[in-house]
Amino acid sequence: MLYPQGEVPLVSDFGFAVSVGQEVRIGIDVTNITNLTPPHGTCGEKSLKYYEKYSRNACRMECSTDFIVKTCGCKMFYMPGNIPICDLETSYYCSRAALAMVANMNNTCECPVPCSQLIYKPIMSSAKFTSDIYNSYLEEYFQSPIGHFDKNIARVNIFFQELAVHEVQEVKAYNIFGLLCDIGGSLGLWLGGSILTVIEILDICFKGCCSSAWR
What we know:
Number of strands: 4
CATH topology of the largest domain: Helix Hairpins
CATH architecture of the largest domain: Orthogonal Bundle
Strand content: 15-25%
Structural class: alpha/beta
CATH class of the largest domain: Mainly Alpha
Radius of gyration: 34 Å
Number of helices: 6
Shape: elongated
Distance between the termini: 97 Å
Largest sheet: 4 strands, mixed
Number of domains: 2
Order of helices and strands: HEHHEHHEEH
CATH superfamily of the largest domain: Acid-sensing ion channel domain
Helix content: 40-55%
Low-confidence stretches: none
């Protein structure tokens, strides 16, 4: 799993698998997302008990930990906090069911979207590793049994797809400057129309008076 430093990795939800006997190339695409704060947006943060830095993953992990501790009286081995770890029997009969309940209850955890977050998106490609000729050479060189490298070795190359960061910003659809521009345009339109109408009325009255006087 690729994640920013200090983030809580949820490998079972967002991780990817690498198989043995393959060469996997993982290109990293970096995106920085900036969301609007209230009242124009819904992003925000809240203090956490087990983590110093807020993130949605940390918030969800903390919520799951509290629910399992409340239900089973212990926590899973990978969860934070100075709480006794569940034994094998409790993990199988209680903790697994509690985790499934947390996953099905979407509104249990109030975890707002952070105002700024960095996302690492993997772009993967793979090929066979190693080739038959190179595999024979390795088996002979290391005196390994046939098929050892195909069944136990993988090669992983991780690199940045491009030396740039994609910026995604949430902006106001309608701001004060746009409102003033619309008000000014409307006032100019109606004011111009009103002046022209007054001039036309005066012109009609003037022509009518002049025509009566001439007659």
